TrEMBL record:
This is histidine kinase. Keywords: Coiled coil. It comes from the Bacteria. It catalyses: ATP + protein L-histidine = ADP + protein N-phospho-L-histidine. GO terms for molecular function: phosphorelay sensor kinase activity. SUPFAM superfamilies: Homodimeric domain of signal transducing histidine kinase. Its EC number is 2.7.13.3. The keyword Transferase does not apply. CDD domains: HisKA. It comes from Flavobacterium gawalongense. Residues 121-199 form a coiled coil.
Length: 283
């Protein structure tokens, strides 16, 4: 009975061991499958790492190009600053010319007032002369006996009157010509003022655009570059696992994409600023 009990116990243990062996074989097969999956994932990760290295080299080349472009833009900014100084000098010169034209316009207006007063005097004299002529006609009827002498005097006065009339016509033509010249000068002055106003507006917008561009460059460019440099330093110093390597590369890629996006944004901003300046210049 003890042997049978021991045999039954051993059979139970044997069945348990067989079940455990089946579970162990199943677990081993599962682990082999997981191992194959991990090997496939490692191959994919190595392929991705090689691709990322190529992308990193491309981004490094693009960063060099971006630095060259930034240096070119700095040179252009210095040129624009020099052009702005020249434009300010030109603006000051135009302001001086504007003041001179205003002074000339004031003098011309005074001259026009004086000529109008002279014209009124000549018209008054002509009215008086006409009244005198009527009086002389009455005197001519009364002085019929003095007709010859009166006719000579009248012919002389008529000659003087024709001369005065011719002089008055010349004066009127001269006055009309001067009025037209004053109108032309006034139109030129208005055009100059409008051009000066447009130049001042363009100058203000251009300076504001330069300030915005400098702010964007100093804040948006430095952050991605600092991220890339810091992550590159960490890659050189501490590489513990491929996962950390991939994580650092992802951060570098994200910072490079941010820098590339900002460079495109900055290019569009500069293009928009130049187009706005051209539109205001030729408006």
């Amino acid at each position: 009975m003890i042997a049978n009990t021991e045999l039954a116990f051993q059979n139970d243990e044997k069945e348990k061991r067989a079940a455990e062996l089946i579970i162990a074989n199943t677990e081993l097969a599962f682990q082999n499958d997981e191992k194959e999956k991990r090997a496939a994932e490692l191959i994919i990760a190595n392929t991705e790492l090689a691709f990322q290295n190529i992308e990193k080299e491309k981004r490094a080349a693009e960063l060099i190009i971006a630095n060259n472009e930034l240096a070119f833009q700095n040179d252009e900014k210095e040129k624009r600053a020099i052009e702005l100084i020249i434009a300010n000098r030109e603006l000051a010169f135009q302001n001086d010319e504007k003041e001179k034209r205003a002074a000339e316009l004031i003098i011309a207006n005074k001259e026009l007032v004086f000529q109008n007063e002279e014209k009124e005097k000549r018209a008054a004299e002509l009215i008086i002369a006409n009244k005198e002529l009527a009086f002389q006609n009455l005197e001519k009827e009364e002085r019929a006996k003095e007709l010859d002498t009166a006719n000579k005097k009248l012919a002389f006065k008529n000659q003087e009157r024709r001369i005065q009339t011719a002089e008055l016509n010349i004066a009127n033509r001269e006055l009309l010509f001067q009025n037209k010249e004053k109108e032309k000068r006034a139109a030129e002055l208005i055009t100059t003022n409008l051009e000066l106003k447009r130049a001042e507006e363009y100058q203000k917008e251009y300076i504001k655009g330069l300030e915005e561009m400098m702010f964007m460059t100093s804040h948006k460019v430095r952050q991605p570059i600092a991220n890339i440099l810091g992550l590159s330093y960490l890659l050189d110093q501490t590489i513990n696992s491929p996962d950390e390597h991939i994580q650092f590369l992802n951060h570098i890629k994200q910072s490079a994409l941010m820098l590339d996006s900002f460079i495109k944004e900055l290019t569009l901003f500069i293009s928009h600023l130049e187009q706005k300046g051209k539109n205001k210049k030729y408006a």
